[in-house]
Design a protein that fits this description.
Elements (H helix, E strand, L loop, with lengths): L3 H20 L19 H21 L16 H21 L18 H21 L2
Length: 141
């Protein structure tokens, strides 16, 4: 087992290595290849990290734990503190989109005049609502 002092030394060493890699314009993980434009990791390391994170989330969900912190029991997929953070982030992102005049659903297209969503998202959401209502009607006797 490592001591808190050893962990602090390792953390400081990793931070120094990361700073050196950024200064040399190298991947912050493997320190060998150049990162993608606007990124800090090369495409190979980024793919590996994405697969590791996906496996971690899948394993946590199967165990009934929060997929973000993998420590607390989940209420759905997030624990209560992580759910609060997740909701706050989404709400802030939608508010920024409203101020910028961007669709609050897809965050790509400009919003329709006088509305908060673009026409494509409005049609997609409307079609989904209509299909759900029809399915519910068919279930009733």
């Amino acid at each position: 087992m490592s001591t808190p002092k050893q962990r602090a030394e390792w953390s400081a060493y990793r931070q120094l290595q990361k700073e050196r890699a950024i200064a040399a314009e190298r991947c912050t993980r493997c320190h060998k290849r150049h990162p993608a434009p606007g990124k800090r990791m090369c495409s190979r390391c980024a793919t590996d990290a994405r697969l590791r994170n996906e496996a971690k989330r899948t394993k946590a969900a199967a165990a009934g734990l929060c997929i973000r912190c993998v420590a607390a029991p989940a209420l759905g997929v997030f624990c209560k503190p992580c759910l609060t953070k997740h909701n706050f982030y989404g709400q802030a992102r939608r508010e920024r989109a409203k101020l910028d005049g961007v669709c609050v659903s897809c965050f790509h297209n400009s919003s329709a005049f006088g509305l908060f969503s673009c026409r494509a998202c409005i049609q997609r959401i409307s079609a989904g609502n209509k299909a759900r209502k029809l399915a519910r009607k068919k279930e009733r006797p």
